[in-house]
Structure formats: C-alpha cells, structure tokens
Amino acid sequence: MQPQEHNGRPPFPDADLIHVVELLPAAERQRYARIREFLQASVRPASLGYWNREEFPFGLLQDMAGHGLGALQLDGSSALFKGLMYAELARADVSLSALAGIHNELIVGMISQLGSEEQKSRWLPGLTGFTELGAFALTEPGHGSDISRGLETSARLEGGEWVLNGAKRWIGAGTIADFALVWARDQADQEIKGFIVETGRPGFTATRIANKIGLRIMQNADITLEDVRIPAGNLLPGAARFASVQGLLRDSRAWVGWQAAGIQFAAFDVARDYVLERHQFGRPLAGFQLVQQQLADVLGNASASLALMVQVARLQEEGRLEMAQAAMAKATTTRLARATVAMGRSLLGGNGISGDYGMAKLFGDAEILYTYEGSYEINSLLVGRAVTGISAFT
Q: For 20-128, which CATH class?
C-alpha cells in the first residue's frame, strides 16, 4: 500500500527525506531506481516464505545477476552506489544482502586483487554471473574476535600439494558454495594464508547450521577439513600473509553499516504500511501521536545511519578509510538498527512477533548484523583504542 496524500502535501514513498540518492550521477541514479524496483517487487515479497522455512532462493540468483549484483566489485561503480545497493538489498532481504556483500567484497574482491591470473580466469566469470558461489571461511568454532591470533586450521606443503586440517564455523553459503576461501596457518612459517578449496574435495565436509533466529535464508555452515589436499596453485599468491587482506576486511566491515541502514528503512516500510492500514478506536493507527513519534524515530535513526555511511563512502573513494572509522560506522549503525527494529516490532503490536508480517524477520536479522563482522563490543573497543591510544583488549 502506498501512503496517500494528506492535506495537499505529497508523501515520501521512498523515505529518503535527506535526498541521498540525488548524490549519485545521473546514470547511477537511473540504475539504482531500476534495481530498487526489482528488489522491492520481486525479492522482498518472496523472501518472507524462504526466511520462515530457512531455505535458499536459488531462483532469485539469476535475476540478481541480470541486474549486475554479482559484479558490483568489478563494474566501476562508485563506492556510494555500491553502498546504496547493499542498503537496498538489505531493505529487501538481509540474507541476500549478506550474500551479495560477502560475494563482492571478500570473494570476488580477493580473487581479483590477490589471486593469480589462472585463478581469475577460472573463477571470476562464474562468480560475477552468480553461476558459481564462493564461501569465506575464516571464523572457527573456538575463535571469532581473536581469529588473527588464535587461528588453528593448519596447512602444510607436501609433495607439491597443500594439506589442510581444521574446522570453521558460521561460514555463509558453506553448504551451497562451489569453493571455500579457507584461511589456514602455514606450519612452515606460521603465517595465515588464503587457499581456494573446492567443496567437492575428499575430506571437506559442510553441515548446515539450523534453527537460527536471524539470517535464516543464508545457509551458514560448520566446515571440517580432514587432510584435504589441494594443488599448490590454489594458494592465493597475494594472500601469503594475513596483513595483506586487512584493507578488504576493513571494507567488508563498512558494508555492514550499509546493511544496517537498509534494514532500518525496511522496518520503516513495514511499520508505515501497517499503521496506515490498521484501524483501532475507529481510526488508522497512523493518526495517533505515539505512533507517529515512533515512526519518526525509526526514520530518524535510518537517515542518521545513511548519512554516516555516505561519509564512509566518500572516505573510501578518497582511499582514506581506516579500520577505526569502519568500526565506528558498523557499531553505530547496528546499535541504531537494533533500537529501530524494536520500535518497529512495537508498532505492530502482537503481530510484530509473527513471522507472517515481516517485522519479526527484521527483528531477528538485526541481531545478526549487531554480531557479525566484528561484534558491537569489539568494534566499539577498536574505536576506543583509536581515540585513546590504549588497547582495552590484547
């Protein structure tokens, strides 16, 4: 339902009160409008059933590829356009935004920047067309925030092959990917390195993690590697040291901020439609002061998050984005997102806890944004270290 005009004033159907989209050049603005229409018309309505069933919508991938969402990292798009795409994807569905973000920022980005020519020619065509998928396998069962120091998965070079052993957890698309980009510690020099591990190799096992409260469409997995052998050429030559990937990990932290902005606009969309349609005491809920106040706060949080991410995009374009800035953006926007979806759930009353109305989906997904790509607490401490010069964690 589209909001109706009231007292002669036009509504804001897209909720962009601060006109961020107008910052895009004309060609990107037109492309943005086309993709947004596709996401709202096709992805958003279909996603609710998949989310409730914890199923992956394979049928949507080719349509997403047709709109270029598998090639955002390589198509020359501005940082602002890419960010707005991640926000609009999250506005339609957070799981598919996570898939597209990890796919572009970490899988396509790392193979493009750190891979060999052979690896690029083998994988990039399929990846950019979403006919092949990669999984980013870094986190382990016993190591999340301390992964750079505590990583236990091992790799050793033996007879011209790498042999990998270990376990990974919470790996997005782990059960449906064609390969995993596995991070393992080389036993020879103790450096953490990146390896392309095809998921069909003997000793590679991926088990879906079920019963999640959020990101239920994303197929997260536990992965075990038992003497998995891969060719020596499967090592990413540019990822022979973990320090070499810090820039890409920083940028991936920033894109969660765009997701957090997008989920808040989704909460606004769901809440506004609901309070305009729902009647109590003989009038629309939208006509009550407390309802309008919460709706205004939802949009205020969303707009503040969006404005912060616009500045992050500017710093990215100038090559000046630092980890502390990305951490602040991620922590702030996900904190606001948590508050926003709580207000959204309140605006729907009892229906806010039902998986049939969309807000419960957003409520659960917001918890994942608050936690992954560095928890809220860790990102806050990164900011604290940057402004005090004192580390609160070792």
A: mainly alpha
Alpha-carbon distance of 239 to 224, in angstroms, equals 21
DSSP codes, 228-250: EEEEGGGB-GGGSSGGGGHHHHH
Read off the pTM: 0.93
390 CB-side CA count, 13 A: 2
Q: Both tokens of residue 203?
A: 């000793």
Angle formed by the axes of helices 26-38 and 79-92, nearest 10°: 10
CATH code: domain 244-388 is 1.20.140.10
Cβ-proximal residues to 313 (8 Å cutoff; 6+ apart), any chain: 78, 79, 80, 82, 83
Compute the distance between CA of residue 349 and CA of residue 370 in angstroms, rounded to an integer. Answer: 23
pLDDT digits (tens, 9 = 90+) for 337-375: 999 999 999 999 999 999 999 999 999 999 999 999 888
Top CATH class of 134-240 equals mainly beta
CB within 8 A of 151, min separation 6: which ones? 138, 140, 143, 183, 184, 185, 192
296: which residues sit within 8 A by CB, 6+ positions away?
A: none
Reduced to 3 states (helix: H, G, I; strand: E, B; else coil), residue 254 is helix
Check residue 116 and report its DSSP letter.
Answer: -
Per-domain residue ranges of the chain: 20-128, 134-240, 244-388
pLDDT digits (tens, 9 = 90+) for 192-225: 999 999 999 999 999 999 999 999 999 999 999 9
Comparing 20-128 with 244-388, is the CATH topology the same? no
- Cα 231 to Cα 36, 69, 119, 273, 375: the distances in Å are 42, 31, 12, 54, 35
Compute the half-sphere exposure of residue 251: CA atoms within 13 Å on the CB side of its CA. Answer: 25
DSSP 8-class letter at 381: H
Distance separating alpha carbons of residues 81 and 72, to the nearest angstrom: 9
Could you tell me how far CA 278 lies from the centroid of its own chain? 32
E strands, the chain, in order: 134-137, 154-158, 161-171, 179-186, 192-198, 204-208, 221-231, 279-280, 283-284
Give the Cα separation of 188 and 314 in Å (integer). 41
Nearest-5° Cα angle at 337, 339 to 278:
70
Residue 3 reports pLDDT greater than 50? no
| Residues forming a β-bridge with 6 | 9
Contact predicate 155/149, CB 8 Å = no
